[in-house]
Specification:
phosphoprotein, six-stranded mixed β-sheet, alpha+beta, Heat Shock Protein 90, Helix Hairpins, Sig_transdc_His_kin-like_C, kinase, rod-shaped, histidine kinase, transmembrane
Length: 452
């Protein structure tokens, strides 16, 4: 089945076809109505004339040549044997207009008579009396021009064709004008490549579907550009972070092979093992970040945030103690495994930077579950509070306390929290650093306390 690829062509063909059906229906209706009106008017005229001469025959006052006062000029009075008794001037030199004799029980009949070599005649036949030998009066006129020819249909077709052409042109122009912004959007989208996603599609005026499509396309391109920039920055940072330990490991191993007598083999192996552990930690954190962005979210489950914090706070005896205090029953919905990883990362980070203790508080505030982790260490300068969540970002204090760190722990925490619809920030604290996690609390919490 033929189907044009162009929407413009399809809509033009569809509109033209529908218009053709509509105009054909209207044309047929006008044609039939016009023909009926002309025919009915002609029969009405012939009936009046035939009735007049039928009455004259009954009264015995009929001249030899019948006069004509209207356009009905074919008048004949024919006896029972088919002989013309009287006729109008135009009907004397022709045989009876019709061979049809109305029966006695149906004396009035309208007829259309078409004889070979002559024009068709619309006539009215009246049997003068029911008697067997009653004459018949025929009054007729030549079939009107519009009924005898197809000029009426031709005229209607000539009227319909320009209308049909106008509909096709108007549809083609309107659909083309409507789709012009789509073509502009398509052309601009074809210019966008993976190396340059800064281009945006032009926004047409108004708030119709095409304008909404353009806005949605630009919003998608905005997100794509952000994702591409993050990917490039991530690849750059990852390659930098991986290059340094790999280069150090290579130098140490090459030096051990080139100068075995000057190198402590055990120390070289311990250094290589330490570097390998750091590489393993970096690769592991990178895989976690990749899974967070690529995998489908796990089915949520209700989680008691205070119980989760207490579970994560248990650790070796020689580590900095963690004190957990909770106000009420604070529950959230999410992935227990992922939120436990957030808790572990925050507590391990706090232990590394604390001088003597870590405080964890869990409470409900304005419909949100709020968990804060506070250490009594040196704290984080205000200008660095957002930087610490960047990938591979490690402040000087972090490098001093944890030389083997990857700089991805807090970035992973924020990724997980944002995937749960929450926030993770560093906020003011009278001592040390205070990380505050906010998630939407479950609606069935028995108590909720608001703070100013």
């Amino acid at each position: 089945m033929f189907r044009p690829r162009s929407i413009r062509t399809r809509y033009t063909m569809m509109a033209t076809a529908l218009s053709l059906v509509f105009l054909t229906t209207i044309g047929v209706s006008v044609d039939l109505t016009t023909r009926y009106r002309i025919e009915a008017h002609a029969f009405e005229e012939t009936k009046d004339v035939a009735s007049q001469w039928s009455a004259a025959v009954r009264n015995g006052k009929v001249p030899h040549t019948l006069p004509t006062m209207t356009r009905v000029d074919l008048i004949q009075i024919v006896d029972a044997n088919g002989h013309v008794l009287q006729a109008s001037k135009q009907a004397w030199n022709r045989p009876p207009i019709s061979r049809v004799r109305p029966p006695a029980d149906d004396r009035f009949q309208d007829l259309t008579s078409c004889e070979p070599g002559r024009d068709c005649v619309l006539l009215w036949a009246i049997r003068v009396t029911p008697a067997e030998d009653s004459p018949v009066v025929y009054a007729g006129l030549p079939e009107p021009f519009l009924l005898a020819t197809h000029w009426l249909e031709l005229g209607l077709a000539l009227i319909a064709l320009p209308i049909l052409g106008f509909v096709a042109w108007a549809t083609w122009a309107l659909v083309g004008r409507t789709l012009r912004p789509v073509e502009t959007i398509r052309a601009r989208m074809s210019e966008i490549t993976g190396t340059d996603v800064s281009l945006r599609v032009p926004l047409p005026p108004g708030r119709d579907e095409i304008a909404m499509l353009a806005r949605t396309a630009n919003q998608t391109l905005d997100r794509l550009e952000i994702a591409v920039k993050q990917q490039r920055r991530f690849a750059s940072d990852a390659s930098h972070e991986l290059r340094t330990p790999i280069a150090g490991l290579r130098v140490a191993l090459e030096d051990a092979i080139a100068h075995p007598e000057d190198v402590d083999a055990q120390e070289t192996l311990r250094t290589a093992l330490s570097t390998t552990n750091r590489l393993e930690a970096i690769v592991g954190d990178l895989l976690v970040l990749a899974r967070l962005r690529a995998s489908d979210p796990e089915p949520p489950e209700p989680i008691d945030l205070a119980a989760l914090a207490k579970e994560a706070s248990t650790g070796p005896i020689d580590t900095v103690p963690v004190h957990v205090s909770a106000t009420g029953d604070v529950r959230v919905s999410g992935s227990r495994i992922q939120l436990m990883r957030v808790m572990d990362n925050l507590l391990n980070n706090a232990r590394r930077h604390a001088d003597s203790s870590v405080e964890v508080t869990v409470e409900s505030e304005n419909g949100q579950a709020v968990l804060s982790v506070t250490d009594d260490g040196a704290g984080i300068a205000p200008q660095d509070r957002e930087r610490v969540f960047g990938r591979f970002t490690r402040l000087d204090e972090a490098r001093r306390r944890d030389p083997g760190g990857t700089g991805l722990g807090l970035a992973i925490c924020r990724e997980i929290v944002e995937a749960h619809g929450g926030t993770l920030r560093v906020e003011d604290s009278p001592r040390g650093a205070r990380f505050v996690l906010r998630l939407r609390a479950m609606a069935d919490n028995p108590r909720s306390r608001s703070r100013p």
